[in-house]
Every structure is written in structure tokens, then in C-alpha cells.
Amino acid sequence: GCDWSSDVCSSDLSSASGSSGAAQGSGSVAPSASSATAAAPDVSVLDGSDASLKLSEIAQGKPLVVNFWATWCPYCIDEMADYQALYEKYGDRVAFVMLNAADSASEPAAARAYVQENGFTFPVYFDAAHEGVTSYRVNGLPTTVIIAADGSLVQNAPGRIDAAKLDAQLASLL
User: What's the angle, vertex CA 5, arms to CA 102 and CA 77, rounded to 5?
Assistant: First the structure.
């Protein structure tokens, strides 16, 4: 269900990942001052051709934005136009991974159709093995992860983005 007070929708992402509940954290892994240079997990995702790529291969030394989303999540859908605008503004300097949670057998096809029907041009990837959901402790959608060019974790936050704040964060990473 969706929590209307926090702009987060949840599904049984922990069982989809095949991991124990213990691997799921509190949902937000915002670094403290002492852990601000923690390395972000370099998970594998599938591209639109079902080729497996590591996040570092996609980033190629650029800052990286990973958005965990699903078509059944109204907050995810609501922020897609903001991500498209940010991709158009920063896509040559920041890598974007619109990472579909792939939490059901039909979700990848639904995601492909949704993106095509709406004319979005940002790159869509799929977390088919749920390595991303597990490694980033995603308990609700949408969740946005920001990784600096050096591979350090800048942010891991659930909930709908504030487009102006994300714009400022991306500008500060360049």
C-alpha cells in the first residue's frame, strides 16, 4: 500500500529479493558525517536488452542517480516528468538509472510500455535479481540513491523527490 503522509508505497519487496528480513534495514541509509565516504554497493542491473551491467559501468566516472520505481506506485509515476526534465538538463554529465523494481513477472513489460507510451527518454534498467533492492535496503518506492563520481554514497532516501532540491544536489556534484 501507499503511505499518503510520507509519499512512499511499499510492496513485499523483501520477499521479492529472496533475502531474509534481517537484510532489510530501516529504509533510509543517509550517511552520517563519519560515513559520508562510504562506498555505494556496485550492484548488477539489466538494461533494456537484458544485458547485465554494474552501476559503475553505467556511471563511467560520472555522478549517478538511481531511482527505484514501479508502475503500480503513484508517487513513482508522479515524479517521472521531474526525472525526465533532470535527465534532459544533466544527462550528459550525470548518469541516470531508472531502476524498475521488477517485483512481479508482469512489471518489466508494464514498465517498458509505460515509458514508451509517455515518451520518456531516460535510461530504464531492471532489478530482476533484486540485488539493488537488497543492497540499498529499499523498503518502499520510490527511493532515490545518489552516488558521487568517486563511487561514494551521497544519499539513499525513500519518498517522492523534491525536483528543485535534487537539481541543486546534482549541480553540487559537478
Answer: 35
CA–CA separation, 15 vs 168, rounded Å? 35
Helical (H) or strand (E) element with 12: none
Q: How far apart are CA 104 and CA 102, in angstroms?
A: 6
Query: Residue 157 has what pLDDT?
Result: 95
* Contact by Cβ (8 Å): 80, 116: no
| Contact between residue 43 and residue 132 where contact means Cβ atoms under 8 Å apart | yes
Task: Report the 10 Å Cβ neighbour count for 53.
Answer: 14
DSSP 77-118: HHHHHHHHHHHHHHTTTSEEEEEE---STTHHHHHHHHHHHT
The secondary element (H helix, E strand) that includes residue 99 is strand 95-100
Alpha-carbon span 107 to 90, nearest angstrom = 27
pLDDT, averaged per 10 consecutive residues of the chain (174 residues), comes to: 66 48 37 59 95 97 98 97 98 98 94 97 96 96 97 96 96 95
